[in-house]
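Suppose a classmate hands you a notebook page containing two proteins, each written out with its sequence and a corresponding row of C-alpha cells. How would you begin to make sense of it? This section walks through that situation. The first entry is reproduced here exactly as it would appear on such a page.
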Amino acid sequence: MTDSEIPVDERIAVGLAALGRPAYINLGRVDALPPVRDFEAMRAATYAVLDDAYRAGVRWIDVARSYGSSEEFLAGWLADRAHPEVTVSSKWGYRYVGEWKLDAAVHEVKEHTAARFAGQWAETVGLLGKAVSLYQVHSLTVDSPLFTDDRLVGALAELAAGGVPVGFSTSGPEQADAVRRAFELEVSGTPVFSAVQSTWNLLEPSVGPALAEAHAAGKRVLVKETVANGRLVVEPPPALGRIAREHEAGPDAVVIAAVLAQDWRPVAVIGPSSTAQLAENLVATKVKLTAEELGELAALAEEPVAYWRHRSCLGWH
C-alpha cells in the first residue's frame, strides 16, 4: 500500500490519548485494545497505529505528558522508523499519576504553574528533542492561574521566541471565552499563542465561532474529541446513523468529515485505539457531506453545560 493509494486529508492528526496509557474515558475502546494492557502490548499497539497512519499519509501526531507513555512510545517509533516530515505536538499541564493501573483512584493531576511547565518541557525535550513542532498548555480554562502568572506567561513567550510555537487546548462549557482571552495575551507586544486545540464535535460545537475568529486571525486551529469520546459512535443519533448508511461509512467517518467541512479549516485530531478504528476514521476523507446533511447534523448539538456534565460522568475503562 502506498501513500497515493489512500489520499488522506493533510488536516488529519493522530492523537495517542487512548494508546499511551491503559485506562481512558473513550467509549468503545475496551475491545479494540490488547487483551492484556501492559507496557509492551500498548507500545506494540501504538506502533501499529502509527505505522498504518504514516502509510495512509498522516504526518501529524499529537501527544501529551499526561497520556501515560505516549511521548516515550512516539520517541521510540520515530527513532526506529526515521520517517521524515512528521509534525509532533505535545502538551503540558497535567501529570499522569495512574501508575499504569486500570483502577487507579486518580489518573491525572492538573497544575498550570511555571514550575510544572519548566519540569514537563524538560521531560518532553528529553524524549522528543527537536521533533516538537508545537507545545500546548493542556486544558486551559478561563479560571486557570496562567492568566495572572506573569512568570509563566513570560516563560511561554520565551519558548515561542526561541522557535517552538506555543499553543493551548481547551475544555469545558466556557471554551470560547478561554480561546478569546488566551489569544489576547502578549509579551512586549507579541502574542504568546499561535495555535489552539479545542473540543468541537456535533454534540458540542459551541466554541466554533471563536475558532473561526482564530483562523481568520492566522492562528492554527486543531479540533479534539471529534467523536465525543466515542458517544457518537457507540450510540449514534438516528440522523447520524442514516447519513452514515447513505455514505456507506461508519458514524465516526461522518462526524470527522463534518469537522473537515468547517470553513475555518481545523486539523482534526483523531484518537483510534486500534488499526481497525484508524481505518474506519480515515474513511472521513472520502465522505463529502451536503449542505442539507450538515444542517441535519448541526441539529444534534446539546446545551454545552449538559454536554460537559455528561462527559464528567464517563468512567475510566
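The notebook's second entry, a different protein, reads as follows.
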Amino acid sequence: MLSTGALRAHLLAARLAGPVATSRETSLRSYRLFAARDPRVTLGLDPGRGWGERDLLRLMADKCGVSDDPAHVSGPDVIDPERTMAGLDAFAERLSDAAVRRAPVLFGTGHPHRLIGFYAALADALSAVGCAVLTPAQGRRIDITTRFGVRTYNLDYVRGVALVREPGARVPGGGTGAHTHSPLPLRVALEAAAEARGPLPELVVGDHGWVCGAGQLGIEAIGLADTDDPALFVGEAEGRVAVAVPLDDGVRSAYYLPLTRYVLNRACLSQ
C-alpha cells in the first residue's frame, strides 16, 4: 500500500497539490462568476445561500488551502496536500460503503483526457464486488451551450465511465472525449435510466457537472475539484456533495495512477 508519506511526496512532485498550474487569476475569476450565479461555474448547483466573492475565498481557503488574502491576485494557486489526502480518505470511505451495500453507481467525467483511467479503475473494482456500474443513454444526443454557442455532443461510455464527444470525432468506446462543465449529460443519463425502469444510481462519482448535478438532485455524489471549481466545495459545505477532493484536475493522466492505488487500498477494493 502506498504510504501517506509517499502519497504526499507524489502529490507535490506531480503538482497535484502544493503550487499548481491553475493560476490565481483563473480561480478568482471563477469565484466572481459563481457569486454572480453564472451557470458556467455553478455546474448545475443551485446554492442555498448567497455566496459573495469574500465568502468563496474563505471557503476555498478552508477546503483547499488557497490564500485567503484578497490582495493576492496573481501567480500559481496552492492546494494543501494534507487536505487532498484527507479528501481522498473520505472519498475512499464512500466507495467502500457503496461496495458493502452493492449500490448501483454512475461514473462520469468532464476531463476524459486526464481522468478516465482513474475513474475506470474504480468502476472495474466496484463491478468486481457486485456493484452495477450504470451506462444509461449510450449514444444519446445532447445540445450543450458553450462559449462558442450551442454544440451537439453524444454521450458515450469508456470502461463504464460516461463522457461526451463530438459526433464523428472518434469511434464509440474510444478513450478521448470533450471537456465539459455541463450538468446536462448527468440529467440525460438519469432520465434514460428512469425511462428504462432500470436501477438509478445511489452514488455518482466524477467531477464538474456530474457531481454538482447529482448532488442538486439529492443523489450521493463524490468527486475531484480544482481551485477554480468552487461549486463542488460549496455543494460540500451545503451538504449536497458528499466529498470534494481538492487537487489539480489537469495534469498528465499517468500522475493519477498512485492516487488510484491509494484509494482502492483505503477502500479495501484492491484486486
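A careful reader of the second entry would note: The radius of gyration is 17 Å.
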